[in-house]
Amino acid sequence: MTIATMNEKKLVVKGQTVAEPIIRGWYAWPHLVSPVSGSLHLANRQLKTLASFVEAPELHEEALKSPELRGGPFVDLPANKVEDVKRMIDEATQSGHHMIEFANQIRALTATCDAARGANSLESLYQEVPEMLDGYVEFFYNDMGHPSFRLFEGLIYETPLYKEQDQSVHLYLVDHEQRAFAFSTPRSTDGVLVIEKPFKHLIHDLIGRLRFEAMPPSEIEASLAAMALPTDLLDPYLQEAPDTSARDLPAPGSWRYFGHACVLVTCKNGINILIDPLIPINTPDQGVPRFSYQDLPERIDYVLLTHNHADHVVIETLLALRHRVNTLLVPGSNGGICDPSLKLLLTAIGFESVIALDPLDRVLAGGVEIRALPFLGEHGDLDVASKVAWCVRDQGHTSVFAADSNNLSPKMYQHIHRVIGPVDVMFLGMECVGAPMSWVYGPLLLKPIDRRADQSRRLNGSDAARALDLINTLECKKVFIYAMGREPWLSFIMSIDDDENTEQMRQAQQFIEACLQRNIPAELLFGKFEESVA
Question: In the CATH hierarchy, which fold is given to the domain comprising 254-532?
Answer without folding.
Answer: Metallo-beta-lactamase; Chain A (3.60.15)
